[in-house]
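Students often ask why we bother encoding 3D structure as a string. The short answer is that it lets us treat folding as translation between two languages. Here is a chain of 267 residues written in the first language.
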Amino acid sequence: MARASRIPVGLDTGNIMGLDISELALALLAILVGGFLKGATGAGTPVVGIPILTSLFGIHFAVAVFSVLNLISNLWHAFAYRSHQGERGFVLRFSVMGGIGVVVGSIFLAWLPTEWLMAFLAIIVFAYVGLRLARPGWHLARPVGEKWAVVAGLGGGVMQGAGGISAPISVTYLNAMRLSRDEFIATISVLFSAMSFVQILSLVLLGILTPERFWVGVAAIGPLFAAIWVGEKAAKRLSKVWFDRVILVLLVVIAVRLAWGALGGAN
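And here it is in the second language, the structure alphabet:
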């Protein structure tokens, strides 16, 4: 990773041919692991991929590439799990507000530092995981949870636009409602699709998603979908309890990543 230290975060570069074999392998591994998580849980691809691509190319490149991957993979999941969606109004409010939040977050990405936001969200996620461990039976009742769809969708969209990862809010929120795996994936895939679509438009207008970065994302679709397929096969062996535990572990990883980034570790 010696080469990565010479590439500052935010550098306008997409020259992947300048990397050596080990660095390209690391980037591919990030996509494969992220795809496996996506197939198993419906989320997690950017959590693994964005930090690693950021270390190699910078945050703008990483967010741009994963905006392409996120849109395609989530459109597929939303279609594949469409029969498992819950109340349509709830899904619509959650997703539309997520799209609106992306616009605000993309502006933050282009002009404002996000360290304080990441630190705040890390605290929220750690607190939620701590609550779940202290009170395993706690959950957000469905009627109450659906009333918070607008706030959760907007907050997740802001995080998606600013850092390419909405999971600190969106995954925490849906996990608190204790949805089944199928409904969880059906719901969050619609949200992710809406956010990714708006994010791509925003990134193009801001000059962050360039044609070169777009084609890098397209080239990574094959490995990503192969890993998603493996993850889905593995997830069929998981019970509802184990699925819930996997999501909690994923949230801990997300919170650690946010805290590390807030402290400047990603730089």
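Translate back mentally: The chain has twelve helices and no strands. Keep this in mind for the problem set.
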